Sequence to fold (85 residues):
Amino acid sequence: MQDEVTQIARKQARSLCNCEQITVAEGWACEEFEDKMNISCPIHGPCRLGVIVSFAVYGDPSVLRLAELVREYRRRCLTNRKMGV
Fold:
């Protein structure tokens, strides 16, 4: 019976989860990526962005900003895993 309750809870939780499997991060839209980083999921806490695919124009200074944001996101993920989130 406990397994059935767990399965039902998981199915219902999936409909509430707003995590992504793939996130596109564009160098010219760093603010949008930063906003996605700060969204929270009702199930997991910090929203999981899945595989991050980044596009940027070579030589554009926003490339550095985007790389910094991706590193920050990955650090947060590691911290949250260690804390059990």
Observations:
- Residues 2-82 form one domain.
- The helical segments are 2-16, 30-37, 62-82.
- The longest strand covers residues 22-26.
